[in-house]
Amino acid sequence: MAYFTNATFAFLKDLAEHNDRDWFDENRDRYESHVKEPAQRFILAVGEELDRVSPHLRADPRPVGGSLFRIHRDIRFSKDKRPFKTHTGIQFRHHKGKDAHAPGVYLHIEPRSCFLGMGTWRPAGPALKKIRTALVEDPEGWRAATGDPEFQKAFELGGESLTRGPRGFDMDHPLADDLKRKDFVAVRSLPQSFVTGSDVVEETLALAERGAPFMAFLCRALEVPF
Fold first, then answer.
1. Of 35, 46, 106, 197, whose CB neighbour count within 10 A is largest?
2. Per residue in 108-135, pLDDT tens?
3. How many CB atoms lie within 10 A of CB 152?
4. DSSP 69-136
């Protein structure tokens, strides 16, 4: 069964070219039919087998506050006043988390820029300190999680890093480069055919399983179950 189609990407491409409220209102049916509804069906289907990755991840098909991110941008404090995102984001986050910064599995759908991500993006200061402390106290655990051959075949570590070392951490530590990370995320670039394929649910779950040791390390560091 296909969830997303070429029409999904056509809508997002058109939205990037006509990013205004009038155009969106005229094309709202396309958004509902080709983006929102397929995403909700996809979330439900993944949720049926998400325990394969962890029983603590949640698949929530609600249109607001669930796994599907809003298409509307928050422009209150941004110089960029375009009202809509030109991608679709779906996050299966840890049940202890309340927002996008929680540990989880993330699928990003955008023309020419699809990817699957795992981990925690821009964790808050206390959470970031816990992860860095875990790297210092358990470097072998980190190396085992990120050096696993199956993990390395599937993902690359991504995100942004500090230019200098974080305060309170020894930059002579063997994991000094990792201690500078502001994001602890693993990323796999995906072709459009992955997203539009009939086996997108199974392939998403299979990739997420390969990233489970990485997620397990982060959850241990954050003192939440995995």
1. 46
2. 999 999 999 999 999 999 999 999 999 9
3. 13
4. PPSB---TT-S----B-SSEEEEEEBTT--STTSSEEEEEE-TT-EEEEEEESS--HHHHHHHHHHHH
Residues with Cβ within 8 Å of 142's Cβ and at least 6 positions away in sequence, in order, are 134, 135, 175, 178, 217
Rg (CA), the chain: 18
Instruction: Enumerate the β-bridge partners of residue 157.
Output: 186
What is the CA angle 77-82-85, rounded to 5? 95
CB 87 within 8 A of CB 110: yes
Tokens describing residue 31? 């958004």
pLDDT tens-digit readout, 83-117: 999 999 999 999 998 888 889 999 999 999 999 99
Q: What strands lie across the sheet with 114-120, from one edge to the other?
A: 88-93, 104-109, 114-120, 184-190, 156-158
Q: How confident is the model at residue 63 (pLDDT cuts 50, 70, 90)?
A: confident
The token duo for 71 is 């298409």
Domains of the chain: 6-221 (3.30.930)
The two tokens of residue 97 are: 């988390």
Q: CA 201, CA 174: separation in Å to the nearest integer?
A: 38
User: Tens of pLDDT along 190-225?
Assistant: 999 999 999 999 999 999 999 999 999 999 999 999
Query: Three-state DSSP class for 207?
Result: helix
Sign of CA dihedral 216, 218, 220, 223: negative
For 134, the token pair is 């875990």
For the chain, what percent of residues have pLDDT higher than 70?
100
